[in-house]
Every structure is written in structure tokens, then in C-alpha cells.
Amino acid sequence: MNLSMTHTKKDTQKVLSDEDIVLLVIQGDKDIFGELVDRYEAKLTRYVKRFTQQPDDVLDLMQVVFIKAYTNLQSFDTTRSFNSWIYRIAHNESVTHLKKKGNQKVSFIDFDTFLPHPFARETADDKALSQELKDILETSLATITPKYREVLVLYYYEELSYQEIADVLHIPIATVGVRIKRGKESLQKALVTNKYQP
Amino acid sequence: MNNLKTKILETVHHNNIQMTPKWKFALYSSLGVISIIFAFLVVIFIISLVLFVFSKYGLMDMSFFGFVHIVNMLRAIPILLLLCTIVLLVLIEVLSQQYAFAFRRPLAVTLLAGTSIIVVISFFISQTPLHSYIRDYMKSNNFEMGARAYERPNMLFAGNGMEVLRGEVVGISPTSTMLELFDGTMVVAYPLQSGTNTPHQQNLNIGDDVVLLGTFVGSSSGKFEVSRYRPTRKMFPEKLHDGPRPHHKKNNSDPSANNQKTSYGKTIMKEEVK
Questions:
Q1: Angle at B25 between CA B20 and CA B28, to 5 degrees
Q2: Whole-number pLDDT of residue B253
């Protein structure tokens, strides 16, 4: 009886949306927050590891991210996407971590966001290349500056849309396209420098 | 149960971690919005003050005298106020980046849009009697610092040392014209040399609003040698003085005021000569 009740509760949790779970946590069901941790742990760990390029610190960073998400849950607007909201927290924590470590340059002033850029999405051909690009990226991510590395990770690995990336990074959508383009260019340069042979 | 999930739930339960209450977020958000609005209003006040002072003392009309004087006009902008405005604009931009309407657009677009809105509102405010009332209030209540902001900017133009004056004609004599500036200073304007285009060669009347380009003579700040002259031309007509002034009231009450135009001017001229 008890086992079946637990089973039913777990099943119910599976069909609930992230936003519904947030509402339940706010109403006092602290344990159901664990479901959100389950859903986002793998994604965020992957993202933070690739963005920061510091695998040893990822577990600590993930704890901070989820505790921050829990304490700030009441600031989340349930009519919006929880996915972008929690990625935003992970982004902020990663940037803070990189600044603390001081070994990677994270610029405060960003001229990419200053001027309007023509809106350029990836084409179908670019998408087709993306699997090959993912493999190349994996080995060369550390050579790219965090600003470009992050959009490439969010776009190619996390498969976020331009709009979602813009919401996570708080930048205009057109700037997302510019950063992906420039990220790929700097990746190419890095590959040429490192004499990469596909 | 996986490791991270266990750790998070244990931390939440055993360390008694509480969610930040909603009212705190509402408070922070309200403070942010209030700061933006406050900074916005301060910038509008500063810019409208500069436009008001420039307009009342004739600096806005310098473009009548050629492009070089537009540059001189820009040089007359108080550096401190300009710096304050820039700092506040940056503050507005930084604060508004927290909101989707701002961060979804390029910085240049929001900055340009914000600045345009501020300049347009400031211009319209500078055309209202608001600053005249504030100036009068500050003068009557001895707020020296505040009243000083409404004084004529100290400016000397590069090269020829010429200055611009805007005044209302209060007296006319055969050789000169008496002007009253916005701050109540009386100035006697003389033509620089024969043939100079001066107020006096025009069919001027008392009460006309004129802009002069020229130099003050010697140590006397009341004598002004006119190099060039133009009547003020405004897109949005405005009076130099908002509301009647005491000595004008006296003239207006006299039915033979028109006959006194010249004698009024002459009387002042006599006093000036003494």
C-alpha cells in the first residue's frame, strides 16, 4: 500500500511541468524540489563543466546553483520558462567562479551587445555540420574565450534556441547569432594554429 | 536517490534554508524602478535647466551667427552637469538591463531612445515657466547655490573674446539701446563702428526680444559693443520674462506709455552717462 502510494507520487511528479513543481515547492512541499534537481543535474553539470573548463569545481558549483535556485524560487515568474531561469543562475555562478579564479578573462563591457547586428540564424547545412562540430568543439573548447565558448555550448550541446540563449545571457537575439559566428571563427583559428586534421 | 539530490535536500532540511520571501523581491524590484525613475527625472531636470539658461541668455540663438558659434555654444555647457548627466544615463542603462525590454535590444538602441526621450521632454519643460518659478523661489528664499545655477554662464569665446546676450529692449536713444537681461541686469548696447548691424538701425520697439553678439567695454559690465544683432526667432515662441515685471507694470498702467518709449530710454541713458 505504502509502496504503491510512493509509486503513484513519483509517477505524478514525472508528468508535472517544471513550473507546476515550483508552485508545489513554494506551497511548502520541500521534497519535490528533488525532482527539479533530478531533471536539471545532468544538463547543468554538462553546461557548467564545459563553460568553466574546471571539472574539479563543478560539484561545488552545482550545489551553489541549486541552493540559490531554491532560496530565490519565489522570484521566479511561473508564466515563464523555468529552463531559462535556472540556466541563468548557472551562468551567473559560473561567471562569478571564473572571475574569482581570475585565470580566464570575463569582460564586463561587451561591444557585441552595443550595436545592432543583422539577425543571422544557422542554416540547415550548419545544423548538419553540428555533430562533427560538437566532436571538434569538445577537444578545443578550452582555447576559446568564455564569451564565445558559452554560446557554442548552449547552442550545440544544450540545444537551446536563440531566444532561450538570449534570455539566459540577457543579450539581444541578434547578438547570439553574432557570438555563435565569431565563436566558430575563433574555433577555426584555434584549429589551424593547433594543426587539427579531421 | 543520487548524491547531489541527497546533498541538496539534506542542506535544505537540516540547515533550515528558507526561501527568500516574495515581498523582498518586490521591494528590490520597486527600488530598482524608483532609482531608474529618479535618475530619469534628475537628468531631465538638469538638461531642461541647461536648455532654459541657454535659451534665456541667448546661447541657444548663437547658431544665428554661424557654425563657429554653435561650437562655442557647446563649449559653454557646464562640464560638471554634463558629467552628472552621463553618469546618470549610464546608471539608467545598467539598471534597465535587468529588464527584458532593455536587454533584448542593443545597448546603443536603448541608450539612444532613452536620451532622445529625455531631450524632448527636457526641451518642452524648458519652455514652461517651471524654471522661472524655481529661480524666483530660490532667490526669495535665499538659496544661493540653487539661484546661482540660473545666473548667466561665464563664458568667453575662443579667439575674438565675443559674448552673446539676449535681452528685452527697455530703452532706445539715438546712439544706443538699453536692454534688460533675464537676470535683471541692464546693459547699454553701442554699435561697434558705423555700419555695424545693430539694434538701433532697425525699427525697434520697447519690449522687443533681441540677441546680440559683441564685447563688454572695459571694466564696466553694463556697456556692450555690438558686433552683430538678430531678433530672436523661436520655433516655440517664448517670452524672455515669464509674468509681468514691476517696472513694466508701471509703464503699462500709464495711458501715454507709447509716448514714453523714447523718453524712457533717454532717461536711462542719462543715468548711465552720469
A1: 130
A2: 38
Please tell me the distance in Å from B105's CA to the nearest CA on chain A: 5
Pairwise CB contact (< 8 Å): B105 & A70: no
Sign of CA dihedral B141, B142, B145, B147: positive
Could you tell me if B97 and B106 are in contact, meaning their C-beta atoms sit under 8 angstroms apart? no
| Inter-chain residue contact B8 with A71, CB threshold 8 Å | no
CB B69 within 8 Å of CB B164? yes
Nearest to B4 among A37, A166, A171 (CB): A37
Give me the pLDDT at residue B268, please. Answer: 36
Which chain A positions have a beta carbon within 8 Å of B110's beta carbon? none
For residue B126, give the C-alpha cell: 524648458
C-alpha cell at B107: 545597448
Residue A73 reports pLDDT greater than 70? yes
**What is the CB-side half-sphere exposure of residue A149 using CA atoms within 13 A?**
24
Q: How far is CA B205 from CA A76, B58, B63, B109, B236, in A?
A: 69, 19, 24, 48, 21
Interface contact flag, A59 B4, Cβ < 8 Å: yes
Q: B213: closest CA among B227, B200, B196, B193? A: B227
Cell numbers that stand for A135 in this block: 566532436
How does residue B88 score in pLDDT terms, banded at 50, 70 and 90? Answer: confident
CA B152 – CA A10 distance, rounded (Å): 77
**For the whole prediction, is pTM greater than 0.80?**
no
Q: Which amino acid is at B133?
A: Y
Pick from A71, A113, A170: CB nearest B17: A71
- Please judge whether A74 and B8 are an interchain contact, meaning their C-beta atoms are less than 8 angstroms apart: no
**Cα(B244)–Cα(B262) distance, integer angstroms:** 21
Q: Is residue B226 scored above 90 in pLDDT? A: no
Per CB-CB distance under 8 Å, the chain A contacts of B109 are 116
Nearest to B104 among A72, A73, A166 (CB): A166
- First-to-last CA distance in chain B? 102
Q: Please, how many CA atoms are within 13 Å of residue B2, restricted to the half-sphere of its CB?
A: 13
Look-up: residue for cell 547655490?
B145
If one counts every other C-beta atom within 10 angstroms of the C-beta of residue B55, the result is: 21
Helix, strand or coil for residue A1?
Answer: coil
